[in-house]
Amino acid sequence: MAPSERLALLLLATCTILARASGDNGKIVNGTTAAPGELPFVVSLRRSKSGHHSCGATLLNSDWILTAAHCVRSSSPEQLDLQYGSQSLARNSSQLVRVAAIFVHPGYEPQDKYVNDIALLQLAQSVTLTKRVQPVRLPEPHQVTPGNASAVLAGWGLNATGGLVQRDLQKVQLQVFSDAECSERHQTQLHGTQICAGLPEGGKGQCSGDSGGPLLLTGTDTQVGIVSWSIKPCARPPFPGVFTEVSAYVDWIVETVGSSKTPSSLWVGQLIVGRSPPGLTS
């Protein structure tokens, strides 16, 4: 074998070993594909002109969406739309809805560790609730999510830094860290309205494109977090992902939705807040 051929084989083998070691063949990072209809409240926030997935989001009811402020702050309503009712992204999906208004939390400050990274989108048309289009449950106001709690992250984000947006919705099981451990791992004092989730050893968690999507208490449809930011490369130890803590903003969500001309119900804890419970059609 010629020296040039031996060099080529050596380089190929090295690249293959590095690719396997990097974990880039995982999903969301290193998650699994959600079953059809398993997470009927997760929707894709898209750029309306291109149809490209931009961020994750969740359905609060037929008329309102919850997402991260940094996903929408620089956008106008006509630049956005949402794909709902399907866990597979499709640029030409028939299940799209336009955005009528954007409500970014007035205290959002990206220069201060993305504090108050939360926004509401009012839809231009009501979506019909079905078995695969359902509202997410909000936690009780100021409900504490304990450290070491088990949680599930869902999204279509990159499977690794520099990776690909996933066509099918991914989910991954994570551990919630206490506020003290979260700040210690990030070597900075995070805000009390933020929570962290990941694994102590890293290797699983959020990546670009997961922003705005939900962190849910395992075995429930209660959303305790909104994907806000993380240290790159994605899922790098010892840094867990940082989420906006939804329970700190339930009052703001209820007030904002209730102040619209057509107030609608929200699912908060065990209660329905509003005029009527979320409906269901076949």
Automatic annotation (TrEMBL):
Keyword Transmembrane: no
Name recorded for this polypeptide: Peptidase S1 domain-containing protein
GO molecular function list: serine-type endopeptidase activity
Secretion signal, residue range per the UniProt entry: 1-23
One GO-annotated biological process of the protein: protein processing
The entry's keywords: Disulfide bond, Hydrolase, Protease, Secreted, Serine protease, Signal, Zymogen
Occurrences of domain Peptidase S1 (ranges): 28-258
GO cellular component terms listed in the entry, alphabetical order: extracellular region
One Pfam short name: Trypsin
Chief localization: secreted
Compartments where found: Secreted
Family annotation (InterPro entries): Peptidase_S1_PA, Peptidase_S1_PA_chymotrypsin, Peptidase_S1A, Trypsin_dom, TRYPSIN_HIS, TRYPSIN_SER
